[in-house]
Design brief:
The protein is of the alpha+beta class. It has two domains: 201 residues, Ribosomal Protein S5, domain 2 (2-Layer Sandwich), CATH 3.30.230.10; 138 residues, 2-Layer Sandwich (Alpha-Beta Plaits), CATH 3.30.70.890. Helices cover 40% and strands 24% of the residues. It is built from eleven helices and 14 strands. The strands form three sheets. Strands 2, 3, 4, 5, 7, 8, 9 and 14 form an eight-stranded mixed sheet that branches. Helix 3 crosses helix 4 and helix 3 crosses helix 5. It is globular, with a radius of gyration of 20 Å.
């Protein structure tokens, strides 16, 4: 075990994301659909999760995070099945003791914006700095993904971690070949003006935390049984069409493909949208826009896209819908220009 350095404070941060084509980043899907060249699309948001590490009691690791009860355990017995088990598992990987890890997310808890994966990325960046380990952003993403997949004990994707380390606007391609990289990055940020693109999107928190395992579990079960292969093949094709239209600023096609994709997912899992989500989606359609859940849905956040004039009209409509639900609100939609960073290092 390595005792956390006395008088050292390290702070890192990483952005959360909105996405399209999610679930295709789960290896079960992109390996068996590799002939279609699956990809996902995500936008890193400047709602950052910050991780600060300070010295703490010898032989103990303490974690504090909004929405969770503070937890402190002996370094030899860190519980990986705890609500904060992912963070304890990362601390165990780095063999750190005598540390207080504080997690502060600017996105709502369990909002389906990739918060836990983002926190994992930020924590790995912080601890690798403490132990003076050289690690690349993509290596951070892979490590966070591998630890989360094993701790969660359910199939997980990697796009949340990739958005967190990279920032910006990206398409992630999954080759699923022994001779090819696990993923390749197509960065759209140089091809588009972030300040302009932001005007084309809205993001809303529906006020109800999401339960991604429930929805993901249904999708995985259906895929394993072979009852939804055609739908996932359609989603792969739609995702390619969506990203191509986005690059070309063909907003009519962007809107129609997003509405098509959500329609397919609603056929497979009607509860992917809660009551508020359905209202937000229908109002988007009524205003010539499209709206989609983030992550695996089932509560959490929705995001909309369309022509700027239509998005401006939709903003007031969404605000009215959200005003009738406690804790629901529109969220800032600023794109994060950078991924995970070390914000402070006080030795």
């Amino acid at each position: 075990m390595m005792q956390y350095p006395k008088n050292q404070i390290v702070t890192t941060s990483a952005p959360c994301r909105i996405d399209f084509g999610g679930t295709l980043d789960i290896s079960l899907l992109h390996y068996t659909l590799r002939h279609l060249n699956p990809c996902t699309f995500n936008v890193a948001l400047d709602m950052r999760t910050r991780v600060t590490i300070r010295p703490y009691t010898k032989d103990q690791v303490k974690i504090s995070s909004k929405g969770f009860t503070d937890a402190s355990f002996s370094s030899d017995n860190l519980p990986f099945d705890h609500p904060l088990g992912l963070m304890f598992a990362i601390a165990s990987y780095y063999r750190i003791t005598g540390a207080h890890i504080h997690i502060d997310s600017s996105s709502p808890p369990r909002s389906a914006l990739g918060g836990s994966s983002t926190a994992a990325v930020a924590l790995i960046a912080a601890l690798s700095s403490v132990v003076d380990e050289t690690i690349t952003p993509h290596q951070i993403a892979k490590l966070a993904y591998q630890i989360e997949s094993n701790v969660a004990r359910v199939p997980c994707g990697i796009q949340d971690q990739l958005a967190a380390v990279s920032g910006g606007v990206n398409i992630w391609h999954f080759g699923a070949s022994p001779s090819a990289p696990q993923f390749t990055q197509e960065c759209l940020s140089p091809k588009m003006d972030h300040s302009d693109f932001q005007k084309h999107i809205l993001i809303a928190y529906c006020g109800v935390p999401h339960e991604s395992k429930d929805i993901n579990g249904q999708w995985i079960k259906q895929f394993l049984q072979g009852t939804s292969r055609k739908q996932w093949q359609q989603i792969v094709h739609i995702t390619h069409t969506f990203t191509k239209a986005l690059v070309n600023q063909d907003w009519s096609t962007v809107v129609s493909t997003m509405n098509d994709e959500v329609g397919i997912r609603l056929q497979m899992t009607p509860d992917v949208l809660d009551k508020t989500g359905k209202l937000l989606r229908q109002s988007a359609i009524d205003n010539q826009c499209a709206a989609r859940f983030t992550g695996a849905g089932g509560g959490g956040c929705m995001w909309a896209i369309g022509e700027i004039a239509n998005i401006d009209k939709l903003r007031d409509v969404w605000q009215t819908i959200l005003d009738s639900h406690s804790d629901a609100s529109l969220l800032q939609n600023k794109i994060a220009d950078c991924g995970v960073i070390i914000e402070g290092d006080n030795k």
